[in-house]
Amino acid sequence: MLSHYVSTPGPLHRIPAGPKVLGLAAVVLALSFLPSAWWAAGVAWGVACAGHLAAALGPRVFLAQLWSLRWIAAITVGMQLLFLPAEAAVANSSRVLSAVLLAGLLVLTTRVTDLLAALERGLRPAAALGIDPQRVSLLLTVTLTTLPVLARIAAGVREAQRARGARGGPATFVVPFLVVALKHADELGEALTARGVR
What we know:
Elements: H1 17-32, H2 38-55, H3 59-68, H4 70-81, H5 86-109, H6 112-123, H7 133-163, H8 170-194
Helix pairs in contact: 1-5, 2-5, 4-5, 6-7, 7-8
């Protein structure tokens, strides 16, 4: 399983995985209650920036995270502008992108093994309801680590297209991206099956 953990020591690295997950959930929930206003967009971006400052990972990591979200930002804002005023579209998109940046920050400052163990512990009471804590925690962990992998696949597809002199655009990007992403999903599924995950 791929991890994008950054070993540079920072304040967030020293916080155990469980409290970090709960903190992330609380912050994302609070962001979701913000109104669709310009100031709410500023608050959402301020929270994302404050999180990265607290992690002490440096501006290069933050800018790399922002750059990896450019297509998601374009699609999110573009689709909402079709149906909503600019203020609501920007505010809603800012909340979503801020939440994604904070989730990425959790992955950057927490080892996948620690995250998996914390999720399993937190989901242990759900076993009484017939829910398998190990399977659910593995699903959530794979979900959290997938976004950086997809961003890297997208960057690789664009670099390959530029090397071949292909013209960029959504139509020429989507098909090869989906092919490579689905291939990665198949390989991940095979790796999990080989380790006894059904």
